[in-house]
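Example for reference:
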Amino acid sequence: MTISEIFDVHGESYFRNMEKVLIENWNIVDGIVATGGGLPCHNDLIDDLNEKGITVYIEATTDIIVQRIKSDVTRPLKKGKTETELFTTMEVLQRLRSQFYNQADISVKSIGTPEQIANKILAKI
């Protein structure tokens, strides 16, 4: 099932519990994992992520986030929203989630090309 289908059929709570089980059983030795924006904010998963490896918060403005996701029809929290409603939703989520994101080991601003951002992260590691 896609994330949207899981949200539609089982709800967000079910999805978040599945994330918790996945993270608790993860045994990744070497690699990079990009999580969804909500994952670190539920079930104390930021603590689990910090224990399992180096966490990185790539900080983007609400404008940048909206531009990146406004055409993505697969995002459940975007479903049925106008661009203005999406902006408001993302702004609220960023405020609520910042307390978790700020617990990441490394924080960099999402300014520049992907290569430049990766280099900023590597420099901090």
In short: Residues 3-124 form a domain with the Rossmann fold fold (CATH 3.40.50.300). Residues 41 and 97 are 6 Å apart (CA to CA). The longest strand covers residues 56-59.
